Amino acid sequence: MKYLEEFQNPELARRLLDEIRATVTRPWALMEVCGGQTHTIIRHGIDQLLPDQVELIHGPGCPVCVTPLEVIDKALEIAARPDVIFCSFGDMLRVPGSDRDLFQVRGHGGDVRVVYSPLDALKIAQQNPHREVVFFGIGFETTAPPNAMTVHQARKLGIPNFSMLVSHVRVPPAIEAIMTSPSCRVQAFLAAGHVCSVMGMGEYPELADRFQVPIVVTGFEPLDILEGIRRTVRQLERGEHTVDNAYPRAVRSEGNPAAQAMLADVFEVTDRAWRGIGTIPASGWRLSERYRDFDAEYRFSVDGITTREPAACRSGEVLQGLIKPHECEAFGTTCTPRSPLGATMVSSEGACAAYYLYRRLGTTPTPQEASPVA
Amino acid sequence: MPTVDISGWTCPTPLRDQPRVVMGHGGGGALSAELVQQIFAPAFGGEILAQLGDSAAVSLGGVRLAFSTDSYVVRPLFFPGGCIGDLAVNGTVNDLAMSGARAAYLSCGFILEEGVEMPVVAGVADAMGAAARAAGVEVATGDTKVVEAGHGDGVYLNTAGIGLIPPGVDLRPQRVVPGDVVIVSGDIGLHGVAIMSVREGLEFGVEIESDCAALGGLVESMLAVTPDLHVLRDPTRGGLAAALCEIATASCTGIVVQERAIPVPSAVANACAILGLDPMYVANEGKLVAFVPREHADAVLDAMRAHPLGAGAAIIGETVETHPGMVVARTPLGGTRVVDLPLGEQLPRIC
Fold first, then answer.
1. CA–CA separation, B114 vs B261, rounded Å?
2. ipTM, 2 decimals?
3. C-alpha distances in angstroms, B346 versus A94, B26, B30, B243?
4. Which of A16, A313, A371, B100 is in Cβ range 3.0-4.6 Å of B169 for a Cys bridge?
5. 3-state SS assignment for residue B28
6. Which pTM was predicted?
């Protein structure tokens, strides 16, 4: 695929790395906000190739990881009901609740289905008028617009047996929370390009100014990440702190106004609990009053959830950048994707999962040890 | 806005076991391996089963036979490039071929769901017959059962097969040694993406056809160059990654693959990028991975490329003494990463 090859070109990558090496003079700590960026970095070994002074801190931008346990437990309870068809994106199925996951609900006879679009769930609702169809609407600004559109469509088409369990989160309040933490080490951000392709860049200049941090919008292919790092390091070395768009092929400064209008119509901003973090003010969306009929939490009255989260995992420190995943004693021993201690290990965008899948240190040869590219 | 102290961030979830069967137990990954190792192998015992190969090498009256069985529960029954019928024939023929054997006889078990249309059954049977004739194998015995409506997916198939292992051929992971060359017979990921595209109604711009094919002839042409191949594996469920991981573990050698050398058709790469999947983990039904002594590698590669089913064969890596039991990929950018056995099924990502 031409598109992929262009943005994974080794020669161009070498040039960008050379430029970064020539620019950097002292240590800098950059946070990539999105778990998708983390996986690109680890999967392609970008962190191995950067000069030692450039440290990448993995941010909390994994929608699966930050979905609160209480919401997962609510999803599990709804999904287990015999009259319900529960639809979800694939990577939520393996995330453990207090005592089970969606796979296990399915193993016990629950009708849990993987869909690729929320509109597929709506279609299932039309095809099964005598059953309740619930879609698990989680994620950042990226997945929120199609979910909002689906609820909008459900109302327009008058589909009474469709509802959505909503737990959407917003990136800018999370950046604010990170920067105001006393233990914060972050000096610059690689902002998530797909979030900005929806919301634009308007929310970032105030944050860059207030916290004196460069914010560079990047994509998800290896060259996108390297270009973002190059621009970030250049700003840091010059003492600048502006918002820079290194992903112009997908991001316009105003974002996608139609998607924003859909969000404004269907959702309203709310305080939201982030798993492992706690409640961040104004950091989430829920269905607005006008669409409350389609809110699965109300429809199914899922109350009295008691969550159980034994605090045996250091993913909080991983999320802060205080330790790398492999520095946790449980990493790869008591905590693996097979038996995760934290959602960061089980999610396909989690930092611990990235390290476990691609970087089990001590056994992985360094680039110098491996033979040259064939 | 109030500040949030992230020093207390934590993200714990409980440790659990799997008290019931989940789909991942049939996914060809770590969960499948645990099911076999923890339940089936102890229950059945036996040294032959403990080898855990795609087919068992057995000796009967002084004759070395390969013996294998597999079940097929694919949905939809008909897909671009094939159907459950030719899949069931080719799958078992290939399992035998991975022992170096030319399949001779197959058995065939049909589990039909009440209500399935007769032309569907006929279509599946016709495809099986055609695939068997093409592979030079005879369906010698069979069985039919019918389950109540709602208790099946139309048609489930089981095939078992036997074939003769030629003298001098001994294909086992334990024969792999550091310095072996790893060859894949062609483009990977076609079958899995073809199935996904029709099962989920996804369109990727071009129709992707399954690579479903019988590999007995290709293996014969490789063995004609040298009987001293070390191991062959068809990378079905779990894909190329699972096949490599299983061989690394069983042989206690390390494997280094060059990602750029792995043949991935652009349409497969495109589809996988959209779904957040890794082509190395996507199923194949007409490809093999060969571990070949270095001195024979070029000749074997030439023989493979001269065969229609090996025209896209490529050297993708080698075995090493470092990191025994582990597969490592060298990325196009020059970094390295571990290639791990998948847990269960691959799951499409949220975004």
1. 48
2. 0.72
3. 11, 12, 12, 15
4. B100
5. coil
6. 0.81
Residue A338, chain B, CB below 8 Å: the answer is yes
- Position A6, amino acid: E
Is A26 an 8 Å CB contact of chain B?
A: no
Q: Which residue among A96, A116, A360 sits closest to B14, beta carbon to beta carbon?
A: A96
Partners of residue B21 in chain A, C-beta under 8 Å: 107
Q: Which of A3, A49, A181 sits opposite B333 (nearest CB)?
A: A49
Minimal CA separation from A183 to chain B, in Å? 6
State whether B256 and A370 contact (CB < 8 Å).
yes
Q: Do residues B292 and B180 lie in contact, with contact meaning Cβ atoms separated by under 8 Å? A: yes
Which residues in chain A have their CB less than 8 angstroms from residue B202's CB?
A: 116
Mark yes or no for CB contact B4/A280 under 8 Å: yes
3-state secondary structure chain A: CHHHHHCCCHHHHHHHHHHHHHHCCCCEEEEEEEHHHHHHHHHCCHHHHCCCCEEEEEEEECHHHHCCHHHHHHHHHHHCCCCEEEEECHHHCCCCCCCCCHHHHHHCCCEEEECCCHHHHHHHHHHCCCCEEEEEEEECCCCHHHHHHHHHHHHHHCCCCEEEEEEEECHHHHHHHHHHCCCCCCCEEEEEHHHHHHHCCCCHHHHHHHHCCCEEEECCCHHHHHHHHHHHHHHHHHCCCCEEECCCCCCCCCCCHHHHHHHHHHEEEEEEEECCCEEEEEEEEEECHHHHHHEHHHHCCCCCCCCCCCCCCCHHHHHHCCCCHHHCCCECCCECCCCCCEHHHHCCCCHHHHHHHHCCCCCCCCCCCCCCCC
Query: Which candidate from A95, A98, A367 shows the least CB-CB separation from B336?
Result: A367
Burial tier of B200 (Cβ tally within 10 Å: 0-12, 13-18, 19+): middle
- Bridge-partner residues for A221, per DSSP? none
Residues 212-231 of chain A whose Cβ lies under 8 A from any Cβ of chain B: 222
C-alpha distances in Å from residue B245, one per residue of B173, B231, B248, B281, B342:
11, 13, 5, 11, 9
**What length is written for chain A?**
374
Give per-residue pLDDT as tens, A266-278. 999 999 988 877 8
Contact A150, A156 (CB under 8 A): no
- Nearest chain A Cα distance for residue B337, angstroms: 5
Average pLDDT in the A321-336 region? 82
Q: Is B277 on the interface with A (CB under 8 A)?
A: no
- pLDDT, one tens digit per residue, over A13-30 is 999 999 999 999 999 999
Residue range B143-166: mean pLDDT, rounded? 94
Q: Is B196 on the interface with A (CB under 8 A)?
A: no
Say how far apart CA A80 and CA A105 lie, in whole Å: 6
Closest CA to B172 of B57, B281, B280: B57
Q: Provide, as residue numbers in chain B, all residues whose Cβ is less than 8 Å from the Cβ of A2.
A: 266
Confidence of residue A75 (pLDDT cuts 50, 70, 90): very high
Residues B196-210, mean pLDDT to the nearest whole number: 79
